[in-house]
Amino acid sequence: MLDFENWQKMVALYTDYGLAVDGNEWSLWLEFFTEDCVYKIQPRENYDRGFPLATLAFESKGMLKDRVYGMTETIFHDPYYQRHVIGVPQVISVTDERIESQANYAVFRTKPDGVTTVFNVGRYVDCIRRTPAGLKFESRICVFDSEMIPNSIIYPI
Questions:
Q1: How many of the other CB atoms lie within 10 Å of CB of 83?
Q2: What are the contacts of 121-125 at 24+ separation with CB within 8 A?
Q3: Which stretches within the chain are classed as H helix?
Q4: Region class of 39: left (phi > 0), else alpha (psi between -120 and 50), else beta
Q5: CA-to-CA distance for 134 and 44, rounded, in angstroms?
Q6: Residue 75: is its pLDDT beyond 80?
Q7: CB–CB of 4/94 below 8 Å?
Q8: Half-sphere exposure of 15 (CA within 13 A, CB side)
Q9: Would you give the distance in Å from CA 20 to the centre of its chain?
Q10: 102-150, pLDDT tens digit by residue?
């Protein structure tokens, strides 16, 4: 079981994560992860079958920093906003060091001169580590439901 105080901290982690990504606060986004972390965006079909192939896969905070550099300095694209709607997390298991949880998400994308569209829908499968600096993602797998995505994934899910 997760006590109420730690439940609130976990919900705040999910909420603050969505706000940081929606606000393009990439240096803050990095701080949601441990140094040795895993971040994947993976189709549901591959995840459910245990296949390792992912659309994006990073295996350390250093790799996430490289992705932030690429997003902000080298990738050119039409500007857009994204908005995350994140469901209430479900706690799967709890130990003294980790919380395993999952939550549904939907990401909407809006171009300044266009209409809002549903960009990506799925669930987060997370391993959250207790650290001296608070709760951080040790592993975040974004399992998206569709086998296809409408175009490239530039920003984190």
A1: 14
A2: 121/145, 121/146, 122/44, 122/157, 124/14, 124/86, 125/47
A3: 4-22, 26-30, 44-49, 61-69
A4: beta
A5: 30
A6: no
A7: no
A8: 7
A9: 11
A10: 999 999 999 999 999 999 999 999 999 999 999 999 999 999 998 777 6
Residue 73's contacts (CB-CB under 8 Å, 6 or more residues apart) are none
Let me know: does 144 contact 42? Beta carbons within 8 Å.
Answer: yes
DSSP state letter for 88: P
- Concatenated DSSP letters of 49-76: HT----SEEE-SHHHHHHHHHIIIII--
The phi and psi torsions of 48 (rounded to 5 degrees) equal -65, -30
Tokens, residue 124: 């987060």
State the residue for tokens 């189709």.
43
